[in-house]
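Design request, tokens follow.
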């Protein structure tokens, strides 16, 4: 079978403390219910500097400067033990909020973003020095008068944009009455778009890919864009591709809560293997609602508000080149409707069922990339160490099946798992963060197989109580490339022509 390959992966982080304060759902609901709460008054003192965010070890692992397993060698808590980090990583970058406002502006197709004039001049200079966006600095235009921005906020309900305690801009509503196009929704959606742009730009730049090679884009974040007549009509995918000059691409949005990236990657692999498209990009932007989601617990425990990072990623799936790791489309797990939501049933559906189909054991997978949330964020909030909990369930099932001995359970978790290192942005930590690392390790000959697992809680949408999940295996390329459909057709034509010639010669002899 001629499997599709992973041609590249990129990851982006944006430090967004002001958006955390203004747009994070925990904060917006707290302001609505308890505007004078102690939490809201204390939260600003718990925000990190950009430097602290860059030097935070899990963030460096996310952009490719550390292997996740190397986090085991760094003293905890990681937020009290900074390392020497970089804004640039092997797989992507960490961007500050100031520059991200510029990305929001250049991602705005309907003049909804107003930025103050002097602030705009600062952004122009900074954007002009960024290697991925220098050619787009002119899109910032001349900026707006501060009085006009204040009037738009006061009289028309625009969303404020702050920096260092100062008002620097706003985002307008796109319709006077349509709640789906109000200023809050437009801000959320522009953030998704801009962070997706940052991820896709890094994918193209860091993997030697030409933007016009991409033929299809699947966007798999957790927001939805549309209007009163079609709330989730779309299309983030094409809007992101437009900013990134993917002129030959079309695309669509896929939604599935935290499982969406796994769904999207499987669909991308299928599109490529079927020969419909040669190169498919899977892209996701970040979610403002999840900024500071567990902030109350972090503040109560005297910690930094660690959920100050917007996340994004992009993965390119292409035709088998004999080099890049393959996606084993015959080893795909799915949590089907009739399976039930018991933990063992979920793990069986996503892990052992697909492995059994091809005669593999649990130990044949070198690493499992599950819900890779950073435990320093989730443990203080009472949600536990999510990756470790997943690895223990996989190991327990391995013991039950006889793949490993009971006394090997702890070793299995250490050898086949890894510490969580991704921001709690819902879909962002769900399996996808390890793909870049896995690709590099396989290309270097240091890893054979990885299973990517995405799981989603569908009850959040109040349409069903069902659970969801999808998994697939990435494997090192053997270098053997099967004949493509086009090659096979050509061979068939040659054989058919030869047969016709033989038949004709036989007729002539008669």
């Amino acid at each position: 079978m001629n499997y599709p390959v992973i041609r590249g992966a990129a990851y982006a982080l944006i430090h967004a403390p002001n958006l955390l304060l203004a747009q994070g759902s925990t904060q917006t609901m707290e302001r609505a219910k308890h505007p004078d709460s102690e939490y809201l008054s204390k939260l600003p003192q718990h925000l990190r500097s950009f430097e602290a965010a860059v030097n935070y070890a899990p963030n460096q692992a996310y952009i490719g400067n550390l292997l996740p397993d190397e986090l085991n060698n760094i003293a905890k808590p990681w937020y009290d033990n900074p390392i020497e980090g970089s804004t640039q990583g092997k797989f992507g970058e960490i961007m500050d909020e100031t520059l991200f406002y510029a990305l929001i502006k250049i991602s705005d197709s309907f003049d909804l973003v107003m930025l103050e004039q002097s602030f705009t001049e600062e952004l122009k200079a900074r954007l002009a020095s960024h290697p991925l966006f220098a050619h787009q600095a002119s899109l910032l235009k001349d900026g707006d008068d501060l009085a006009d921005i204040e009037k738009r906020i006061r009289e028309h309900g625009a969303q404020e944009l702050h920096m260092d305690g100062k008002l620097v801009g706003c985002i307008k509503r796109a319709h006077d009455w349509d709640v789906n196009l109000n200023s809050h929704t437009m801000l959320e959606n522009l953030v998704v778009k801009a962070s997706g742009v940052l991820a896709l730009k890094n994918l193209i730049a860091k993997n030697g890919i030409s933007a016009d090679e991409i033929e299809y884009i699947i966007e798999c974040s957790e927001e939805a864009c549309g209007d009163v007549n079609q709330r989730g009509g779309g299309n983030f995918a094409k809007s992101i591709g437009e900013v990134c000059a993917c002129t030959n691409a079309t695309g669509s949005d896929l939604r599935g809560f935290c499982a969406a990236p796994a769904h999207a990657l499987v669909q991308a692999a299928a599109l490529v293997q079927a020969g419909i498209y040669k190169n498919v990009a899977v892209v996701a932007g970040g979610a403002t609602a999840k900024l500071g989601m567990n902030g109350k617990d972090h503040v109560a425990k005297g910690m930094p508000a660690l959920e100050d990072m917007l996340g994004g990623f992009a993965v390119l799936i292409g035709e088998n080149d004999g080099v890049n790791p393959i996606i084993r489309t015959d080893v795909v797990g799915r949590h089907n409707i009739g399976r039930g939501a018991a933990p063992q049933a979920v793990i069986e559906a996503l892990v052992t069922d697909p492995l059994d189909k091809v005669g593999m054991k649990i130990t044949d997978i070198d690493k499992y990339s599950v819900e890779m949330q950073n435990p320093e964020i989730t443990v203080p909030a009472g949600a536990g160490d999510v990756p470790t909990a997943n690895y223990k369930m996989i190991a327990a099932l391995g013991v039950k099946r006889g793949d490993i001995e009971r006394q090997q359970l702890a070793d299995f978790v250490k050898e086949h798992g890894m510490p969580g290192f991704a921001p709690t942005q819902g879909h962002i930590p769900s399996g996808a963060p390890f793909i870049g690392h896995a690709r590099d390790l396989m290309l270097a000959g240091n890893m054979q197989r990885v299973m990517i697992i995405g799981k989603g809680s569908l009850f959040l949408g109040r349409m069903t109580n069902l659970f969801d999940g999808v998994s697939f295996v990435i494997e090192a390329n053997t270098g053997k490339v099967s004949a493509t459909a086009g090659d096979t057709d050509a061979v068939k034509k040659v054989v058919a022509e030869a047969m016709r010639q033989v038949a004709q010669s036989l007729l002539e002899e008669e």
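Comment from the thread starter after seeing the answer: thanks! The chain has 18 helices and 13 strands.
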